[in-house]
Amino acid sequence: MARLASNFSLADATVTELREAFEQNKLTSRQLVEYYLSQILKLNSTIRGIVEVNPDVLTLADQADEERKAGASISKSGLHGIPVLLKENIATQDKQNTTAGSFALLGSVVPRDAGVVVKLRSAGAIILGKANLSEWANFRAGRNGWSARGGQALNPYLMSADPSGSSTGSATSVAADMAAVSLGTETDGSIICPAIANSVVGFKPTVGLTSRSGVIPISPRQDTVGPICRTVSDAVYVLDAIAGYDPYDNATESASKFIPSGGYKQFLNENGLKGKRLGIVRNPFFNFSNEDSHLTQAFENHLQVLSQKGAVLVDNLQVANINMILDFYQSGEDTALKTEFKIALNSYLSELVSSPIRTLADAIAFNLKNSTLEMIPEFGQSIFLEAEETSGASDPVYQEALTNLQSLTDNGYVKLMTENNLDALVTPGDNVRSMLAIGGFPGISVPAGYGPNGAPFGICFSGLHGYEPRLIEVSYAFEQATKVRKPPPYLV
């Protein structure tokens, strides 16, 4: 790798720091990409966070350097020349694969870049490669972070700990400094959960704020694409680049109304907690087990920080039917997702230019035929089989599930937020994920500490549709007040 100017350090560098280094001629995009390639070479055989590197990545870096030298207008973009890692269910029309971790889609040809990739490229970002994931975005029963193509991704903080899923590699790779920033996808917890488990920031946007076109789907009603990064500000840089209308995703048209004039970076405010009304639901979110007793004091301290920074804590709130909301099966979420998965996946596969499989039934048959290649013993396809048995959107059972989910959302989370005039709900860990999932609501998770064994834990700030500006203010102010995150021990 070429020698860097001055003593500039790339380790854990933020987007802001990288941009400043570009502007001061201390760093080129080629040097930056070469740094991440060296990190990948050193660490990925252990972490297994990355499935493949873009073979054109150095060419793209050179192109970014030429644009910067020429003073091209694109070089003023916040992500220009910054390498971005994509979860491997996000399509790229280049030399990379898009398989959701399954050999069933190896060699398939997508019709176009995913909507978010179009926006990243137009912002001058460099597509570094594809991140490992829980195969088919965890829509098969098995291990978090395992895919046939990528193997088992590991948590860089504690190799024996659950790396969580399904955007596992997106989280482990940025945590281990193998990428500047990354994109994940979430249907129910798949950004928030791995971000918390790997001590990084996970940003789940309002459904439709970012395009899902070209993303191997589970549910158009719940799927969203969002950043997984080391800092809140990095995540906001990425959100600014990818949010907005896409003609290939109808949900983006109505959600675009939530995007503020001037974008999201304006809400990176260290005093963003002042006057914010933050809801606290003790039961069940703050009910820690004996083995997690260290969390009790940690989160009481964090609540005190929020209060000291000017937030108004609205404590001891309750959510109607909370146990049902959080129960994947009782709520109707299980039924709804299986029905939607079959419809959405068949549609996605039918639009591919070429593909070894064209339907969910084909995927099931592939897995049966290639069981030694495609599955570890406990990694079955019961969800696939149950989804294949669903009979479409007009099925009364599916419609009943949707009605129940809407009722739970309106009488639960929406009522909690509106009646108490809350700017955000504050919850430890990722237990709020299903409540956000079924309503399509946004959330930002931020590192909040480390257990006695070194395993990370996090805090989540969530809100109603379009509450991203408030959540950015709250999460950024909390992050700056606490500065909890530290690199994995073996990287120090």
Describe this structure in words.
This protein is of the alpha/beta class and 492 residues long. It is built from 19 helices and 13 strands. An eleven-stranded mixed beta sheet has the order 1-3-2-6-8-7-12-13-11-9-10, with helices on both faces. It has a two-stranded antiparallel sheet with strand order 4-5. Helix 4 links the parallel strand 2 (83-87) and strand 3 (126-131).
The percentage helix is 25-40%
Mean pLDDT across every amino acid position: 96
Distance from first to last alpha carbon? 21 Å
The CATH architecture classification is Alpha-Beta Complex
Please count the beta strands (DSSP E, at least 2 residues each): 13
CA gyration radius, whole angstroms: 21 Å
The largest β sheet comes out as:
11 strands, mixed
Low-confidence stretches: none
- State the helix count: 19
User: What is the overall shape?
Assistant: globular
Number of domains: 1
Q: List the strand order in the largest sheet.
A: 1-3-2-6-8-7-12-13-11-9-10
What is the CATH domain class?
A: Alpha Beta
